[in-house]
Design goal:
By secondary structure, the protein is mostly helical. Helix content is about 60%, strand content about 5%. About 30% of the residues are buried.
């Protein structure tokens, strides 16, 4: 037995005998839990605004971290960019499902237009502003002027990254809940007309058994290089409606929109 003990290096015997050897892994685990708890506490207010409590708070931190804030040696994948890629596709899927069920009579063309409007970067940026994400974005030392511009330019991307982070942390149900909460009202009240008002008016007229609307130029004013057209649209049994625009087509659209609004025609904005 004595000979066997001689074969064991002294440092190994000391390490085995030292209580620090057993305590080291525990201390490391405790530090990790402390760091995780600190990150979770710092994210609490942000999570409350987003409406999702992260099991892995590091996903949320990554979603709001710009490349410029990465420390030396860290990869670009540690920023929001990969999560943005994922979130973009999750958003498209959830909104497509919402549109499919909300507008059962809409054709593929109309659904595609509605989808494009809802998932565009500007729409995502609007959601990010409402959630107060502007000041949460982690940037490097880029200077005050560049800081403001950068925050504004990446807002839509950050919103998509947050969706990606929620998807990874809580699954499809959690991501779907977030999107529905922030996009349902937008879906029913789009900011821009989704269909040509002339088409809407013509389809409405046909449904009423009326002929195709007739557009006529009432007046042209202004210089040759910058004309203004006043156009009227006529339908039997209805008062004419007029519109003004920089081209005949633009004026016709305005005239159609005026008649649509006056007659209470549906389909111009919310189907």
């Amino acid at each position: 037995m004595k000979d066997e003990a001689k074969d064991i290096p002294p440092q190994s015997i000391e390490a085995a005998a030292s209580p620090d050897a057993e305590a080291a892994p525990k201390a490391s685990a405790k530090k990790k839990r402390a760091r995780s708890g600190k990150a979770k506490g710092a994210n609490a207010a942000l999570e409350a605004r987003i409406g999702h409590s992260f099991a892995d708070p590091n996903l949320l931190i990554q979603a709001i971290t710009h490349v410029s804030a990465l420390k030396s040696g860290r990869k670009r994948g540690d920023s929001y960019q990969r999560l943005e890629f994922l979130g973009d596709h999750v958003l498209g899927l959830v909104v497509s499902d919402m549109l499919y069920h909300a507008f059962p009579t809409a054709d593929e063309g109309e659904l595609s237009k509605r989808l494009a409007e809802l998932v565009r970067k500007e729409s995502c940026a609007d959601v990010a502003k409402l959630l107060g994400l502007v000041e949460d974005i982690k940037l490097g030392g880029v200077g005050p002027a560049a800081d403001a511009r950068l925050r504004k330019s990446v807002l839509g991307d950050i919103c998509e990254a947050v969706i990606g982070a929620i998807y990874l942390d809580g699954g499809h149900a959690a991501a779907s809940e977030f999107v529905k909460r922030n996009w349902t009202e937008r879906m029913h009240k789009p900011r821009r007309p989704l269909r040509d008002p002339k088409t809407v008016l013509q389809e409405w007229a046909q449904g009423k058994g009326l002929p195709t609307p007739v557009y006529r130029e009432v007046e042209r004013t202004g210089p040759h290089h910058d004309p203004q057209f006043r156009v009227a649209v006529d339908l039997p049994g209805l008062a004419s409606a007029e519109g003004i625009g920089g081209s005949k087509r633009a004026a016709e659209k305005v005239a159609a929109s005026v008649m649509i609004e006056r007659e209470g025609v549906g389909g111009g904005n919310d189907g």
